[in-house]
Amino acid sequence: xxxxxxxxxxxxxxxGKVVDILAENCDIVVRYGGGSNAGHTVVIGDERFALHLxxxxxxxxxxVCVIANAVVVDPAVLIGEIDGxxxxxxxxxxxxxxxxxxHVVLDYHKREDQLREESLGKHxxxxxxxxxxxxYADKVGRSYAVRMSxxxxxxxxxxxxxxxxxxxxxxxxxxxxxxxxxxxxxMESCRQYAARLAPFVTDTTEWLHTALGxxxxxxxxxxxxxxxxxxxxxxxxxxxxxxxSLGVPAGCGVPARRIDKYLGVAKAYTTRVGAGPFxxxxxxEIGQYIREKGHEYGTTTGRxxxxxxxxxxxxxxxxxxxxxxxxxxxxxxxxxxxxELFVCSAYxxxxxxxxxxxxNIDRLAKARPLYERLDGWEEDIGQAQTFRDLPKNxxxxxxxxxxxxxxxxxMIGVGPKRSQTIMK
Length: 424
Ligand code: GDP
Ligand code: IMO
Ligand code: MG
Known about the structure:
The structure is a single chain. By secondary structure, the chain is of the alpha/beta class. It folds into two domains: 3-91 and 205-423, Adenylosuccinate Synthetase, subunit A, domain 3 (Adenylosuccinate Synthetase, Chain A, domain 3, Alpha-Beta Complex); 103-199, Adenylosuccinate Synthetase, subunit A, domain 2 (Orthogonal Bundle), CATH 1.10.300. The protein has helices at 15-22, 75-87, 107-120, 132-141, 154-176, 183-197, 204-213, 247-252, 285-293, 312-322, 361-364, 392-405; strands at residues 3-7, 28-31, 40-44, 47-51, 64-67, 72-73, 96-99, 103-104, 201-202, 218-221, 261-267, 270-272, 306-308, 310-311, 326-330, 340-349, 352-354, 368-375, 409-413, 421-423. The strands form five sheets. It has a ten-stranded mixed β-sheet, sandwiched between helices. Strands 14, 16, 17 and 18 form a four-stranded mixed β-sheet that branches. The two termini are 19 Å apart.
C-alpha cells in the first residue's frame, strides 16, 4: 500500500508524528516538496526529533528515505541533520537517496529571503527566512539555478557561481544597499557539501519506480499544508511549492494513480504562522490558552503560532483538492479544559452562505465564519488508548467533525508521543 500524508491546514498539523507511526509498516518514506522551512516533530518516549529535510521515517533504522526532485535542499541543514541523528545512534548510510535534480539552497538565497522580507515591512509574507522562495524562483527562472548534480562538477559550478553572484550582488546592492557576497566563500561551502552528500545523490525517479516495481510500499510525506499551496492556497501568503497532495506526481515523478490512500492531517483546531488571512483566528485569551497548552511555537523558527477554531470549510476544501480518503485529527487533548468549543461549518460572504472555501484572499477577507457550539470536557485524555476511553463530549466533537467534512477520522492524537495516538 502506498500512502500520502498531507497537511490540510496551514502547516504544523502533526505530519511528522503520523508519518513516524505509519512508517512502521512502510519500506520507503519520500519527501516530495518544500525545504527546510518544514519542521516535523517525532516524539518517542522522552526523545524528541525535529526534522527539516530528512523524511520523518528517518528515525526508524529500517526505513529508506528519499528526498525527491521538487525538494529544495539546504545542504548545511541536511548535513547537520544527518550528523545529529548519527550522534543519537541513527545512521543514514545506504538508506538515503537525494535526487540529482533537486535544487540547492545556498547562502545567497537565505540572504535574499531576509532582505526582501525586511524591505517589505508590514507587507511581508512572514516567511521562515530559509531561502525557499528565492531558490524556487531561480529554479523557475532556470539561468541561475544550482542542482544537486552540479555538485558533481566543481570547476563548472565555480564558473556558474561567478555568474550567479555577479547578478545577485548587483541586485542586493541596487535594491537593498547590501554588501556583496563572496564567490569564494559560497564555493568553499559547495566543496564541503559535495564531499559529504555525493554518496547519496542519484536518479531517485528511476530508483522509486524500480522499488515500486518490486512491490515496496512507499509513504509520501507532505510538507507545509494544503492551504499554503502555491496554486491553491491563500496566495500570496503561501509557500513557493505545491504543498498539497497535488505536489506528489510533479515532485517525485510517481503518478497520482500509484497512491492507494491519501491521509489528511489536521489539528482539532487551526493554527497558522506568518501573515495571511485566518477566518477562525482567536486573537484573545482562548487563542492564548490553546497556544500555551498545545505548545504552539514554530518547530523551525520558534515564532508563536496564531490559533483559532477548527474550520470545516477550509478542511473540506483541502480534502477536495487533495483527494483525501481519511483523516488523522491531532491535538484533541489540547482542547481539554475549555467549557465550550466552536467549529466553523460555513462562511457568510456578502450575505450569502458559502460552503466552498474561497482561496482568493480578497474574497476570503469578506468571509464571516458561521459557528456551531459544542460542549467541552474537563478530563485529561492523554492516557486514552481507544475511542471509548474518551469523554462523551470529546467523542461527540470528533463525530461532528467527521460529519462536517464527510470523511472518516482514523487516527486521533491525544498527546505528542508516538504512543499517544488512538487508532479508530
Ligand atoms: P508538522 O510540521 O506537521 O510535522 O507538525 P510540527 O511538528 O511542526 O508541530 C506539531 C507539534 O504538535 C509538535 O510539537 C508535536 O510534537 C505536537 N503534537 C503532535 N500530535 C500531538 C497531539 O496529538 N497532542 C499534542 N499535545 N501534541 C501533539
Ligand atoms: P511544516 O512542514 C507552518 C509558512 C511560513 C510563511 C509561509 C511562507 O512544518 O508544516 P516560506 O519560508 O515557505 O517561504 O514561508 O509559509 N510555512 C509554514 N508554516 N509549517 C510549515 O512547514 C511551513 N513552511 C512554511 O510561516 O507563512
Ligand atoms: Mg512543522
